[in-house]
Amino acid sequence: MVRHDHLPTDASPVSVSQKGLIRLAGPARGIALDVLRVNSLQAGAYVSHFKGRGMEFDESRPYQPGDDPRNIDWRVTARSSEAYTKLFREERERPVLVMVDLRSNMHFATRGSFKSVSASRAAALLSWSAHHRGDRLGGIIFGDTMHRELKPRLGRQAALRYVHQLASHPDWANKVQVPDSDVSAPLSSAMSALRRVARPGSLVIVISDFLGFDRSAQAYLSGVARHSEVLVVNVSDPLERELPPPGHYRLVSAEREMSIDTYSRAARVDYHDAWAQRQEALEAYCQRYRIHQMPMSTDDDPVECLQQALGRRSH
After folding, report:
1. pTM (2 d.p.)
2. How deeply is 10 buried, as exposed, middle or buried, from its count of CB atoms within 10 A (0-12, 13-18, 19+)?
């Protein structure tokens, strides 16, 4: 378990506050959202490279040894007696869309903080990091009952608007557990909205447990990945990955109480295999569409987790 050294000692494990999310603006300066490498946090996970901020043509100059041949300016070269290469400059104010899942299945944890809390803190950190980088920030915040769309805007007010909408989302108050058979509809609806609002060249970050990530949702997200860089942050609780040692355990929520028996070795193996198959399916999907993937546990420090995955930013 990672100590949450970047969070105040009074931080709630079951909810977030606007004040608490604003406090993450400082630690977010150390997260390198513009790095070229996504470092995997789990063995065998997909490791790839961000294209980074988009590039736009600046000018042409004579070709020099070491220049990338793919950047030769053939039109200028055809009119000259020597080869010319294109020079590019970074596009400013790249759109960054941060999508975060607040469905009822996310309001759960056996260690650390609720998945929804970990996801929200990660979303706030990434939002502040985008602001510090000078990018335009927007996103989608969704739950079982509604989703909010925030168009990309520039400046501190965009980050403040995002964390306000995140902390005040009505699905924080939703105490009704949605059956597993019904969790896919809100996710698919949110992915449809993401497909509609994501513009080519954007950096899109989706933070969820991906429960109910059906073919419809997959089709929408793969459509986004065709013209934008996509990173998925897969949030999970240790109990979802592995049953506890043999014994009787009591689980309590606001609405109900239940007991589980983990003495059966076969049941523990089946449980683990079901989790592994789901993760392998998500990993294969991400590889197919060149989507970056990183895991996050409810007992992770979100700052350390993001720095380890995306790199630390030098000041």
Report:
1. 0.81
2. exposed
